[in-house]
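Quick note —
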Amino acid sequence: MIIHELKILSEEVGVLGETIVMKVKTIANMREDWFDDEINEFIQHKHIVDIKFSVLFDSNDDNYIFSALITYEEIGI
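Predicted structure written out below.
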């Protein structure tokens, strides 16, 4: 399992005066069933802006690597 998180320099103020911060997270896994679980667990209680998926086949190991780039906002940080 590989998880990376990057804070994008984009902050706004919401309607109620709370700070809204845009972030991205990359999740990658070789097991598709675990991959789905990781994404579903991560996106709970977040405002998801976008999710981009990709699949890579590693011919050396005969493995598929599933990855997702998740763009989301955290409110009230």
